């Protein structure tokens, strides 16, 4: 019988944040080509909340346990990874646990200068931003990126990565505090969307070439208004409404592209390809301090329910994290 570990389960299969509770479950046994990681820290992300609510099933073959990114130590190696290596990893699930098995191609080394808590805050956000802003959105140096939800984990990463790539950034946030936080992260122009018209501000600043949108619904029309000819709107979530009423003539007149993607359902091969690109392009930015992990708050693994409630409150700037009891996350 496998050794047991602590993991987080959802009481009743779905529910509110307080449905999350710790359980004892068998430690995963890695398959061929997989690495077993002793988890020290795990990121808490919006898709975890959607899954907890019963609206986002794991991909076929993925763990039912929540958690899409971790950092820790290799305890059983494969591929380029040896026992004792400090790594972070992108997961299809299973991160809210003391151990996780993951495709060896989906691991990256902990960047120089970062501790394991900071490293665990990187994979889901950096992979998502790279795939959507730089691949789907084709953001180039000298262009302008509009980031909605600028103080979310994704927003924080998008601002920094765009600036590292030589782009200009216009960021939106709700409230003066979030606007100030976005400005400290390097955004060139920050709009408090509770009392300013971001489309007008963006147009006065020369318009935007790429927009990264996590809101959906009511933001489409003003985002299109802010878009330059040939601009791209990339959707990665729709927290403000799933349905888009698209003004077709405006799209045609501006030669606009409306696109988007999900990271989790991508094939293992495509995630492996992204890992290579993120290590090649983004890891040097991280190690140079141009892109940093912004951790708002961490919770013990057993307090995953409190971590979800905090993320849902919207009070955070950057990432919300879980750490194992013996996490040893300090650098």
Concise account of the structure shown:
The protein is α/β, with parallel strands linked by helices.
Q: How would you sum up this structure, described in words?
A:
The protein is α/β, with parallel strands linked by helices. 30% of the residues lie in helices and 27% in strands. The chain has helices at 46-52, 116-120, 123-136, 153-164, 176-184, 198-204, 220-226, 248-254, 268-287, 304-313; strands spanning 4-10, 20-26, 34-44, 69-76, 86-90, 99-103, 107-109, 144-147, 168-173, 189-192, 208-213, 227-235, 257-260, 295-300, 319-323. The strands form three sheets. Strands 3, 4, 5, 6, 7, 14 and 15 form a seven-stranded mixed β-sheet that branches. The two termini are 35 Å apart. The model has no long low-confidence stretch (mean pLDDT 94).
Lay out the secondary structure.
Layout: E1 4-10, E2 20-26, E3 34-44, H1 46-52, E4 69-76, E5 86-90, E6 99-103, E7 107-109, H2 116-120, H3 123-136, E8 144-147, H4 153-164, E9 168-173, H5 176-184, E10 189-192, H6 198-204, E11 208-213, H7 220-226, E12 227-235, H8 248-254, E13 257-260, H9 268-287, E14 295-300, H10 304-313, E15 319-323
Helix pairs in contact: 3-4, 3-9, 6-7
> What is the terminal-to-terminal distance?
35 Å
Question: By helix and strand content, what is the structural category?
Answer: alpha/beta
Radius of gyration: 19 Å
* Largest beta-sheet details: 7 strands, mixed
Query: Beta-strand level of the residues, as a percent range?
Result: 25-35%
| Mean residue pLDDT | 94
* Helix-strand topology string: EEEHEEEEHHEHEHEHEHEHEHEHE
Helix content: 25-40%
